[in-house]
Amino acid sequence: MAKSKNNEAKFSSGQWQSSADETVVEASPLLDGATKVRTPLNQKKTYRKQEEEAVKQLKPGKTTRNKPATASKKPGSAKTKPAAAKPAPKKPAKKRSIFSKIYRFCYYVGIQVMRMALRLRRRARGFWASLKSWRIQRSSNRSFLRQKRRSRILHHFTLPFREMVVRYRALTAAYQEKHNCRPSGLANAWLILSSGRPVAAMAANYIMPVAALVFLLVTIHHYSTMTLGLAVEYEGQTLGVISNENVFTQAQISMKERIVSDTNASKENIVPTYTLTAAGQEDITDVETLTNRMITASGGILEEAAGFYLDGRFIGAVENGDKLLDYLVNVLARSETDAEDETISFIKAMSLKEGLYPTSQVMPLHKLVEKISGDQQVKKVYVIEPGDTPTGVASKNNMPYSELKALNPDIEKVSFFQVGNEVLISRPESYLATKVTRTEVYEEDIAFGVDSIPDDRYPQGYTVVVSAGIPGKQTVTANVTYIDGIEESRLVTKTIVTKEPVNKVVRVGTMTPQQYVAGLDQSGSGFIWPVDWGYFNGSLGSYWGHTGMDIAGNYGAPVRASRSGTVVRSAWYGPYGMHVIIDHGNGVTTLYAHMSEKYAVVGQYVVQGEMIGKVGRTGNVTGPHLHFEVRINGAYQDPIRYIGTYKKTR
How many structural domains comprise the chain? Predict the structure, then answer.
């Protein structure tokens, strides 16, 4: 026990004597400060002062005398003071590392953050508690106000009934007191009515505003259905009420159309008198009704009939309009073909209007049919003159070019636009022209193309067909419009290729013509030597029947046009074999015979030096050479005069 107390004293004084394997630990200021405890409020500080004094006595550097537990006083011995204990040697304090400082800083910051978080948490709890209390209080106030409002309304509505009960009881008591008996059935009913004045007054207060509102709405609805119109009067007779003056103008025009040939009816303009008035929709007079009334007021003999109008223009009237309708339906039926999606209609708008018509305008059905079956517009054509163009023809006839092209789809083709041909300016058009639109499915050819194979072995202008082209097939779906049987337009909506076309293959020469130096050109005609690497081997008359010059050369050597011209013959002929004749104009021709190949074709224009074939041995020959002739107006000429005896070697 003594040892533990001694250790506690050493520990509190900041000194600690360790054993051999123990270290001395200095007292920490924090530990020293930890002995200071906070004194509660209103508490005496006596105990705190005692603690502070004890701490002062146990400061480092001072020693305490401890008596050994085993020491005992011998009898007769003098009292001696024990030797003072030597203080343990102080060791130098260790320096704190950077990690220790960081740890202490983080520890301090963490403690402060925790304290702040707890403080904020307490404040948040308080705020939410106060908010919840405020909401509860507000809800309670609202509930109280609603209950109070309901009670006030209930009290207001039940008050007349309570007053009625009180008045009834008072009247009943007065009746019993006066008559000394209870009121009978009639008397009781009278008492109830007499006491019900408060209820009647309350009912009137609510019913009267509602009744006034209903009356206002009914009045507004009644007058909203009414319109302001013009009452038309003529010679003291009211013709009707119209919405505006245009109705009267249209009626007057319609009246004049009806009585155009009636001599008994007045054709002068009617001058009416207008009066502004209010009328319902059912009281407004339309154009047809007003027209009938105006015709009646104008005088003349009238009768009920059906008027036929075409594009709004009056044509005539018939007694039976149904028969006229049957005729028009039959006209449309003539163009029916039962094709898919077929629509048939008249180009012009037609209508039948029942009404009063002058007797002079009412005609039999067959006369009206004859009138409307004729052509309204005759066919007009323009004869093309020298110097005319498609646009110029349109300008001459004062019509848009698009309209001229619609009437003549092929006007831009050279084969169509020739001098003397007729161009349609306007087609015949009848009153009953029909328009038919139908879907047509048909097959048509697909044009093949041309594939050219360039070949530098042949001169320019040389062409030969390697393989012929084959047109393809396709199925076409189109919407076609016809007017009186004449196609007006065609709109292709779908095409399906059933057979692909095969292109035509043509071999085309690409060799560039070469110019050669002329030989002994005695006439200066400009002919050149026709064979590459050839030499003179006999001319005109060198043997019997020889009509030209023989030019010897290697088999397959190029043969060229001696002069520019047009090929008039390219064929095989017995003694000449494979040969070509070129026309140079002014009756001058040249012939090239015995060739192994010929490249020029009839109608082809060849330039001087252009390759037209190759040297061969076709026809009556003994070896490869070219037989060359020059003819003027069919007479054989000596080629030496035109090409000399020029010899060209490699």
Answer: 4
List the beta strands (DSSP E) in 388-469. 422-426, 429-430, 434-446, 450-459, 463-467
Percent residues over pLDDT 90 in the chain: 13
Q: Over range 623-636, report the average pLDDT.
A: 89
The predicted pLDDT at position 276 comes to: 66
**CA–centroid distance for 582 within its chain:** 65
* Residue 561 φ then ψ, to 5°: -65, 125
Q: Indicate whether 211 pLDDT > 60.
A: yes
Which one of 388, 404, 426 terminates a domain?
426
Would 158 be classed as within a structural domain?
Answer: no
Q: pTM of the full predicted structure?
A: 0.37
The amino acid at 59: K
Residue 594 is predicted with a pLDDT of: 92
Same domain, residue pair 386 and 440: no
pLDDT of residue 569: 93
- CATH code: domain of residue 471: 2.20.230.10
Distance in angstroms (rounded) separating the CA atoms of residues 469 and 465: 10
Task: Measure the CA–CA gap between 458 and 599, rounded to whole angstroms.
Answer: 7
Per-residue pLDDT band for 108 (boundaries 50, 70, 90) equals very high
| pLDDT computed for residue 18 by the predictor | 44
Q: Please report whether residue 310 resides in a domain.
A: no
Task: Based on the fold, state whether residues 636 and 546 are members of the same structural domain.
Answer: yes
What is the pLDDT, as a whole number, of residue 112? Answer: 93
How far separated are the first and last CA of the chain, in Å rounded?
146
Q: What percentage of the chain has pLDDT greater than the value 70?
A: 72
Residue that is last in its domain, among 506, 532, 555: 506
Range of the domain at 45: 2-57
Q: Give a yes or no: residue 123 inside a domain.
A: no
Please spell the DSSP secondary structure of 122-158, one letter per residue.
HHHHHHHHHHHHHHHHHHHHHHHHHHHHHHHHHHHHH
443 & 491 share domain: yes
501, 458 contact by CB (below 8 A): no
Mean pLDDT of 231-244: 73
> Is residue 156 pLDDT above 90, yes or no?
no
CATH number, domain with residue 403? 3.10.350.10
Is residue 621 domain-resident?
yes
Helices (H), 334-484: 365-373, 390-396, 401-407
Alpha carbon distance 327, 320 (integer Å): 12
**Can you give the pLDDT at residue 141?**
87
- In order of 97, 351, 354, 369, the CA distances from 306 in angstroms are 123, 10, 4, 14
567 and 468 fall within a common domain: no
Angstrom distance (rounded) from CA 643 to CA 582:
16
